[in-house]
Structures are given as structure tokens and as C-alpha cells.
Amino acid sequence: MRKFLIFIPIIALGCVNTLQEDRLYLKEIKAKNKVIEWFYYSNVSSTSADYVLLYDTISGKSDTIVNSTNIKDVHFSNDTITLFFYGKPEIYDDYLIVRKTIDDLKIIIDTNAVSKGPMPSRESYLKK
Q1: What is the pLDDT of residue 127?
Q2: How far apart, in whole angstroms, are the C-alpha atoms of residue 26 and residue 71?
Q3: 41/16 Cα distance (integer angstroms)
Q4: Contact indicator for 54, 83 with CB cutoff of 8 Å
Q5: 16 and 37 in contact (C-beta within 8 Å)?
């Protein structure tokens, strides 16, 4: 019984949420009092889904715009977020429906990005 009591704290420490630290950022765009963050979580698998979040710098809250495996790029201009995809938005093999607005920003989907062969390697960075 005593052995189990020793291992419980060790297991609990291993389960601490470090997701914020494991993010590999592809792009951050400042938009008024908000930041659009495009990142994925570092893992060993060959395919990791990308996240695009809208972070409110005033309230500190964030909202997911999309979580997808075929995002090519993200742009922001004139209160409009444009998401570029290789084909229809999808996560692994399931198609997604992406909302048309978030807060006061419009979302446009561009599915015309063409992938020739495997997806190109992407440069990511850790946020300090």
C-alpha cells in the first residue's frame, strides 16, 4: 500500500497540463485588441492538427476559429480573417464546417490552395 502512495504524486506531476508550452507557432497576427494565433502541438505523430485561435488581449479569453489538418495559410485584412486550405477544410479524414464570423470579424474560406506532393515543411517557433 505504501508503494502506491509514493507513486500517486509522481503520476500526478506527470499529468500537469503543459499544453500552452508545447505549442509550436506558425503565425501570429495582431488584429485590433485581438491576436490570431496559428499553431500546432508538438507530438511524435506524422500529422498534427493545426489550431487557429482568436485571443482577446483585454479579457484574456480565446476562442477556436478552426482545428484542421489541411490549413495552408491565415491572413487578416479589413476585419476579415481569410483561411486558406488545401481543398475542403478537414480534420484528418472528416470534413469541417467553419463558422462565418467570430466576435465582430468575418471569416472567409479559400479552398483553392493546391498541394503538389507532400505538404511543404513549415517553420514554427516557440513563444516565450
Answers
A1: 76
A2: 11
A3: 16
A4: no
A5: no
Amino acid at 18: T
- Pairwise CA distance, residues 111 & 98, whole Å: 12
Tell me which residue of 72, 73, 74 sits closest to 115, measured CA to CA: 72
Residue-wise DSSP of 11-34: HHHHT---TTTTEEEEEEEEETTE
What length is written for the chain? 128
Q: Which residues of 14-53 are buried (b: 16+ CB within 10 A; e: fewer)?
A: eeeeeeeeebbebbebebeebbbbbbbeeeeeeeebbbbb
pTM, 2 dp: 0.76
Query: Is 71 within 8 Å of 81 (Cβ atoms)?
Result: no
Q: Using one digit for the tens of pLDDT, what is the confidence trace for 66-100?
A: 999 999 999 999 999 999 999 999 998 899 999 99
Q: Fill in the amino acid letter for 48.
A: S
What does the alpha-carbon distance between residue 18 and residue 105 come to, in Å, rounded to a whole number?
30
Alpha helices in the chain (DSSP H): 2-14
